[in-house]
UniProtKB/TrEMBL annotation:
This is Carbamoyl phosphate synthase large subunit. InterPro entries: ATP-grasp, ATP-grasp_PylC-type. Transmembrane segments: none annotated. One of its GO terms (molecular function) is ATP binding. It comes from Adhaeretor mobilis. Residues 97-285 form the ATP-grasp domain.
Length: 389
């Protein structure tokens, strides 16, 4: 592990501020690396509170982040999922505290389907700005520029429906992701995972991200293409720090769906599988422009997975539910349950409840274990109507 980590002097940062829809995974990485952290996100989860972490809940997301950051004493800050859709806010926040990550301009470029289509004409699905003349047989998707985790995606089935920002040919294949660390000029591939999208047993919507599993096997030529895509993105857009891409694997063909120029959801699995520190790599790349000396790709003895539970109806979290989850949460090195809501929290239908983890010898075993584990958290949850009644 040590040989693959950055070799130059690590910047003397002690206290990091982390913001985003959910900051828990990045916070775990920072705590494992010895940083002090302060957090502001949508949930202020119980598993962060019990660690003694200073965590705040953003009541007005994402507008609360700027005022919150101004008041923090920190050596630098980074953002996780969701904030890539607010480049102007990122720049305003970067003007008051040291940003460890990509600027608003970098976000806008990397998130542009037009830019990606020009950059990867053979690996980007056919994309149009209008639905005029498109078939309504489900072969095209309507997408938003501001989606996250699969939100803002729907099947284009009605030519008279509200115009979407853009339309993309639907591609069948294996939903996948790759994670890189970049220094603005080059990128190192940290790992690839298979994504769980719209799995009914998680309660997720059709296109909603609901988990990841490691151990995705790619041919050498496909793996080289993934690496070239990451290198090209780093050079063309000047990406810095940890970033991810989502793609569909159709036989040996890669179809790039989007770039996530921030902390990806699958990174915590890759950290555990590869025994490296994502936050250490991120800070070194952003502060010193230093990348690891060699690739982190190697066969893992275990397959790791995570799955997110979504509630199909409005629920209220009981004290027993929170207590049981905290008791069985595992450790920050090897979590079993995470993103644990505080008791008394009302969670609207369709929103995430918690995350479960599993390990096994193969993909099917891990998926089956996740499916079994995700049923248990519903015990001890009352519906909001029962609570109010």
């Amino acid at each position: 592990m040590a040989d693959r980590m950055p070799s130059s002097n690590v910047p003397p940062l002690r206290r990091l501020a982390i913001v985003g829809a959910s900051a828990r995974a990045a916070a775990y990485s920072a705590i494992r690396a010895g940083y002090e952290v302060v957090i502001c996100d949508l949930f202020a989860d119980a598993d962060l509170r019990v660690l003694g972490v200073e965590v705040s809940e953003a009541d007005d997301y994402p507008n609360d982040f700027l005022g919150w950051l101004v008041e923090q004493s920190c050596d630098g800050w980074l953002y996780t999922g969701g904030l890539e859709n607010f480049p102007a806010l990122v720049d305003r926040m970067a003007s008051c505290k040291k940003l460890l990550g990509n600027t608003g301009d970098q976000l806008s470029k990397a998130r542009s389907p037009t830019a990606l289509a020009k950059l990867f004409p053979k690996n980007f699905p056919p994309t149009l700005a209008t639905s005029r003349g498109l078939p309504t047989d489900g072969s095209w998707l309507a997408k938003s520029y501001c989606g996250a985790g699969g939100s803002g995606v729907r099947v284009h089935t009605d030519s008279g429906s509200t115009q979407a920002p853009f339309y993309q040919k639907r591609i069948d294949g294996k939903q996948s992701s790759a994670t890189f660390v970049a220094n603005g000029k080059q990128a190192t591939l940290l790992g690839v995972t298979e994504q769980l999208i719209g799995e009914p047993w998680t309660g997720a919507d059709e296109f909603q991200y609901c988990g990841s599993i490691t151990g995705l096997e790619l041919s050498s030529s496909t793996l080289q293409l993934v690496e070239r895509i990451g290198q090209t993105l780093a050079m063309e857009f000047g990406l810095q720090g940890i970033f991810g891409i989502d793609f569909i694997l159709e036989d040996e063909q890669i179809w790039l769906l989007e770039v996530n120029p921030r902390w990806p959801a699958s990174l915590e699995l890759l950290e555990q599988a590869g025994q490296f520190s994502g936050i250490a790599l991120h800070v070194a790349a952003c502060w010193e422009e230093e990348l690891p000396g060699e690739s982190f790709l190697f066969p893992s003895e275990e397959i790791l997975g995570k799955a997110i539970l979504f509630t199909p109806s409005d629920i209220c979290i009981s004290k027993k539910f929170t207590s049981d989850c905290l008791t069985n949460r595992g450790t920050i090195e090897v979590p079993q349950i995470a993103d644990i809501p505080n008791f008394g929290t009302i969670i609207p239908a369709g929103r995430p409840v918690c995350t479960v983890f599993a390990t096994g010898e193969n993909w099917a075993e891990v998926r089956g274990d996740l499916q079994g584990k995700i049923k248990r958290p519903f015990e001890g949850i009352s519906t909001a109507s029962q609570l109010n009644g």
